[in-house]
Structure formats: structure tokens, C-alpha cells
Design brief:
alpha+beta
């Protein structure tokens, strides 16, 4: 089950343990992030490409229950 979540921790009821929790978030690089970095390298902006992996602006945010570690949902950028 995927709940509507945003880029910051959200208050949700976990579908697995049924507790009201504030989600634990993890930013994840996606294929889109890798493609943008590759294009930057091809355009001689290779110095800037690693910054995509250091900021959250080009990565999705996955949400997990802090109690049972169940995946709650993903915020896609």
C-alpha cells in the first residue's frame, strides 16, 4: 500500500503494525538522477555532476515505518 507522502517525514498509520508513526525517510537516487549526471558529464559539467547525489533535489524520498521497518510510500521528484 502506498500512502501519499511528501519530501519530509509524515504522520501516518502504518499498514503493517497499525501504529500512528512519523515516517523515517531515505533519499534514493533514481535512473533519472543517473541520466542527468551522465548528461552533465557529456556536456563538460562533470565537476557539478556529483552534487546531484549530495542534494535531495534530484532524488526520490522513500518512507518507512520506524517501528516495523515496512515501506510506506515514495515521494517522486
Amino acid at each position: 500500500m502506498s500512502s501519499p507522502v511528501g519530501p519530509t517525514p509524515a504522520n501516518v498509520v502504518c499498514p503493517n503494525c497499525r501504529q500512528q508513526v512519523t515516517t523515517r525517510t531515505e533519499p534514493k537516487a533514481t535512473n533519472k538522477t543517473h541520466l542527468i549526471a551522465l548528461l552533465m558529464c557529456c556536456c563538460f559539467c562533470w565537476i557539478c555532476a556529483p552534487f546531484l547525489y549530495c542534494t535531495e533535489c534530484a532524488r526520490n524520498t522513500d518512507h518507512y515505518c520506524p517501528s516495523c521497518q515496512t515501506f510506506i510510500g515514495s515521494y517522486e521528484r
